[in-house]
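Per your request, structure below.
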């Protein structure tokens, strides 16, 4: 297997991921999904992210999304599938990605040879993922690659996001952290969402969040003030390092030089997208 610098794959995925996830925070997202009869952010998100697997129900979504409340998923699924089938959802999702990337990056960048190069590199990496035990990645990998380079890049970023996410979920489960506990520890680390946005977006009630904090305190991972203990900080580092190992395949396939070049290109695109307002500024960090 090709030797890569430490955390090279993680850094590459981190600068690619905003190109994928920007669609969920864009006004085009809820507007286009309302146009096919799927109203509300949660219903749009659940269907958009799971559509490659077919018209799945709340149990499957809660399992593979990992840190979302089953009760929240059940409020929207399977009902949302009566408004639009997965094929319609996938077409709508791609239409949103097209509009959002054109708005954030501009037509000159969209048509540039560098973006086409990034798309080719990202697709090569995405093809190196392993399907076994990775349901979201496997479903996305079965979809056809869009012809337009910026959409091929978005499609590859989606696959790489889900490959790492599926890998991370397995690592979390092995460490004995359930979906809510994993969300609480990630939020406490300061690298995730604010507690308020995490609870809203994942559908957890305040009392459920507090109960998870109590369980983590009993394990010595969370202090009385809600901060990670030394053991909790060490565990979060171990989880990310192990995820790097399990998620290595796509980046090993691309090789060190390819990963470095893709990271360089994606950093430029993500920097531009963030400067153009791709993400809300008040939902990250401890708050």
């Amino acid at each position: 297997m090709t030797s890569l610098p430490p955390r090279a794959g993680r850094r590459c995925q981190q600068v690619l991921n905003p190109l994928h996830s920007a669609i969920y925070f864009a006004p085009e997202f809820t507007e286009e999904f309302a146009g096919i009869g799927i109203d509300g952010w949660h219903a749009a998100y659940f269907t958009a992210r799971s559509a490659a697997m077919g018209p799945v129900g709340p149990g499957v979504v809660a399992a593979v999304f990992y840190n979302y409340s089953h009760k929240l998923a059940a409020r929207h699924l399977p009902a949302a599938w009566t408004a639009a089938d997965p094929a319609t959802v996938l077409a709508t999702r791609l239409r949103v990605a097209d509009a959002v990337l054109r708005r954030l990056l501009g037509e000159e960048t969209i048509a540039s040879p560098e973006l086409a190069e990034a798309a080719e590199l990202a697709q090569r990496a995405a093809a190196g993922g392993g399907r076994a035990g990775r349901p979201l990645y496997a479903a996305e990998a079965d979809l056809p690659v869009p012809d337009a380079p910026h959409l091929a890049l978005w499609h590859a970023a989606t696959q790489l996001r889900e490959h790492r996410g599926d890998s991370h979920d397995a690592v979390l489960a092995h460490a004995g952290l359930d979906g809510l506990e994993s969300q609480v520890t990630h939020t406490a680390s300061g690298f995730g969402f604010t507690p308020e946005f995490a609870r809203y977006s994942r559908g957890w009630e305040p009392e459920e969040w507090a109960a998870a904090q109590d369980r983590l305190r009993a394990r010595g991972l969370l202090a009385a003030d809600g901060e990670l203990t030394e053991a909790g900080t060490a565990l979060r580092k171990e989880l990310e390092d192990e995820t790097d190992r399990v998620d290595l395949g796509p980046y090993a396939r691309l090789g060190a030089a390819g990963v470095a070049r893709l990271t360089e290109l994606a950093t430029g695109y993500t920097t531009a997208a963030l400067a153009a307002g791709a993400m809300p500024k008040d939902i990250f960090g401890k708050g």
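The radius of gyration is 19 Å.

Regards,
D.
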